[in-house]
């Protein structure tokens, strides 16, 4: 009876936590997504102009972090290996920014009403963070591999080389770099068309 109760509680909690969750997006061609989400393209382009961070690097990091899911959160740990428990971090939204880092972003940029579930705010955050990685860790803004490592570990962690003890993280960073390269190639083929879409979009 006790095991059955735990199982039912687990199913109930899991259902509640996933309620109203947005769908993650699988991207094979970034041009197709940007064609459908014209405002996302505009926001990414604006972030590129503002921070000097290539679009393909920003988009590859966001894809890795949330698969373009607005309310993404880290999976919950499990109590007794059964009951969904606390999340390991406060990361949330498109960019998976933690509470503390998001608060710092809002303070430094003056974007006090920014929401992690808003793509425009999230991509501006990514551009801002990458520009800080250039200043604090001397990482080229076009270097998706090391930019992702600094994004994940924080500037202090990256400078202390904490990623060297995490082979799994380096593997993920290589995946981000590969996606960034693919997105760059794809965007080179469709930017002019996407720019035309932006001209005729309505808000």
Summarize the structure.
This protein has helices at residues 2-18, 30-36, 38-51, 55-66, 99-109, 119-137, 144-159, 167-199; strands at residues 78-79, 83-84.
Notes on the protein architecture:
The protein is 64% helix and 2% strand. It has 203 residues and is mainly α. The chain has one domain (50-199): Orthogonal Bundle (Lysozyme), CATH 1.10.530. Strands 1-2 form a two-stranded antiparallel ribbon. Strand 1 (78-79) and strand 2 (83-84) form a beta hairpin. The chain starts with a helix and ends with a helix. The model is unreliable at 1-21 and 76-88 (pLDDT under 50).
- CATH level-two architecture: Orthogonal Bundle
Mean pLDDT, nearest integer? 83
User: What is the count of β-strands?
Assistant: 2
Number of domains: 1
Which regions have little confidence, pLDDT < 50, spanning 5+ residues? 1-21, 76-88
CATH classification, class level: Mainly Alpha
Rounded to the nearest angstrom, the distance between the terminal CA atoms is 56 Å
User: How much beta, percentage-wise?
Assistant: under 5%
List the total number of helices.
Answer: 8
Structural class, from secondary structure content? Answer: mainly alpha
SSE run = HHHHEEHHHH
Q: Classify the helix fraction into a percent range.
A: 55-70%
Strand order of the largest sheet: 1-2
Rg result: 18 Å
CATH topology: Lysozyme
């Amino acid at each position: 009876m006790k095991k059955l109760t735990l199982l039912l509680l687990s199913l109930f909690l899991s259902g509640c936590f996933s309620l109203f969750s947005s769908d993650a997006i699988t991207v094979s061609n970034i041009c197709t997504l940007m064609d459908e989400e014209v405002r996302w393209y505009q926001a990414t382009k604006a972030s590129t102009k503002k921070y000097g961070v290539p679009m393909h690097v920003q988009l590859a990091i966001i894809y890795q972090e949330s698969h373009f899911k607005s309310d993404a959160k880290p999976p919950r740990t499990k109590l007794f290996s059964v009951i969904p428990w606390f999340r390991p971090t406060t990361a949330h939204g498109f960019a998976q920014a933690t509470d503390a880092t998001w608060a710092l972003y809002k303070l430094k940029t003056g974007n006090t009403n920014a929401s992690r579930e808003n793509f425009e705010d999230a991509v501006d955050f990514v551009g801002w963070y990458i520009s800080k990685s250039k200043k604090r860790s001397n990482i080229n803004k076009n270097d998706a591999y090391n930019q992702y490592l600094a994004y994940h570990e924080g500037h202090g962690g990256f400078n202390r080389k904490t990623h060297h003890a995490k082979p799994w993280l380096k593997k993920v960073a290589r995946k981000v770099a590969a996606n960034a390269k693919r997105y760059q190639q794809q965007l080179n083929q469709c930017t002019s068309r996407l720019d035309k879409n932006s001209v005729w979009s309505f808000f």
